[in-house]
Design a protein that fits this description.
Layout (H helix, E strand, L loop, with lengths): L8 H15 L11 H26 L7 H9 L12 E7 L7 E4 L3 E4 L5 E4 L8 E2 L4 E4 L5 E8 L13 E4 L8 E3 L13 H15 L4 H9 L6 E8 L5 E11 L7 H14 L5 E5 L2 E13 L5 H17 L11 H7 L4 E9 L12 E10 L1
């Protein structure tokens, strides 16, 4: 946060006195106990409170200066959250003095430290041979003195990390079980992510939003300059052969003939956001020329040559504005001509000498060639 021009209580009172004295025609009494001194000090207290509020608001509006729950609420605006605490887990031994009958350690039973400050709950563990989902707990068969079961601290965080032998008290009475203990220390409880590492990870999170995605690459291409566009074909080389992990970028600056500098700039932009372990190529489009001819009839009061010239100009603008990979339909050429004021009929429409559409690949672009309107 930028350094704000704050003032101390003494500075506020002094500035108040200076301002009043500057407006007065004679010396003003600002000795301790005077009315004006009391007003100045009261105003100083209120000013400090307002100044404190301003500083607090400034601090809460930035991740770099927010802390704790304020930082969490700031993160929440971006769908980001700090990593939560992890509860400690470990193996707890449930034992008995007389192993005569079968006993069951049910899921949900509790054990605790001797002073009762840290509580653990028995949780299901299908990898434990003693666990029975049907019976809802861990079976201690006849003749067996003890069974090890998985327990988890009821409070997430480092509070559950205790030394060996510390979890030695039954919190729930279990028939056939006399005592408990943990042979090994519990050390895998982890506190919630601290402010500093959360801030550092948030920077990576924001950076990841603009990288390694199709939209990220498209955005990078569009950000190179005005009218820069790109068509991306995934898992395919420029020659059309399949190559997994490769993508082809057809970049254009609106002319169909992007310069080598433009292609280099696009490649640099793509490199900054490309997916990890992927390769790519940046190329300009291959041009397909569209030669158009047609005959038009113009209405009374219109100059035929002027109308024909306007039709030719509109056809050229339409074709050149199609963009990379966009087909040119033969039938639509008549519509472009009819849209020009004064045209009453269109005949003999040919596109490259025929009536077929021009259908480019993503690597190609249609541009206007010779346009003849009679």
């Amino acid at each position: 946060m930028a350094n704000l021009n704050t003032q101390s209580f003494a500075q506020i009172v002094s500035n108040f006195a200076t301002a009043v004295q500057g407006r007065a025609s004679k010396l003003v009494d600002f000795t301790i106990g005077s009315v004006l001194r009391a007003i100045a000090e009261a105003m100083g207290g209120v000013s400090l409170w307002l100044q404190g509020l301003a500083l607090q608001v400034g601090a809460l509006t930035r991740a770099a200066t927010s802390n704790g729950t304020d930082l969490d609420s700031w993160f929440a605006q971006f769908g980001f959250a700090r990593l939560p605490a992890v509860a400690a887990t470990g193996q707890e031994s449930f034992a008995r003095y007389t192993p005569t009958n079968q006993a069951l350690v049910p899921v949900g039973a509790t054990v605790q430290t001797q002073d009762g400050s840290v509580l653990y709950t028995v949780v299901a563990d299908a990898t434990n041979a003693a666990y029975s989902a049907a019976q809802g707990g861990y079976v201690l068969p006849p003749g067996q003195a003890s069974v090890n079961v998985t327990v988890q601290c009821t409070v997430a965080g480092a509070i559950g990390n205790v030394s060996a032998g510390a979890v030695n008290t039954l919190g729930t009475a279990i028939s056939g079980v006399d005592y408990v203990t943990n042979a090994a220390a519990f050390q895998n409880g982890v506190p919630a992510e601290k402010d500093a590492p959360a801030r550092a990870r948030f920077v990576l999170y924001i950076a990841s939003l603009e990288s390694a995605t199709l939209l990220a690459v498209k955005n990078a291409i569009a950000s190179v300059g005005l009218n820069i566009t790109g068509i991306i074909t995934e898992n395919q080389q420029y020659n059309g052969s399949t190559q997994n992990g490769y993508f082809t970028v057809i970049a254009d600056d609106g002319t169909g003939y992007p310069s080598s500098t433009t292609l280099t700039n696009v490649a640099n932009a793509v490199e900054a956001v490309r997916p990890l372990c992927s390769t790519y190529g940046v190329h300009g489009p291959t041009i397909l020329t569209a030669a158009v001819s047609m005959a038009i009839t113009t209405g009374t009061g219109y100059t035929h040559s002027a109308v024909a010239a306007q039709v030719a100009a509109d056809l050229q603008a339409y074709i050149n504005g199609l963009g990379d990979g966009v087909q040119l339909p033969w039938a639509y050429l008549s519509t472009v001509a009819f849209d020009v004021e004064g045209v009453t009929n269109v005949a003999n429409v040919l596109l490259n000498g025929g009536t077929a559409d021009i259908v480019p690949t993503p690597q190609q672009r249609v541009l206007a060639g010779v346009i003849t309107v009679t």
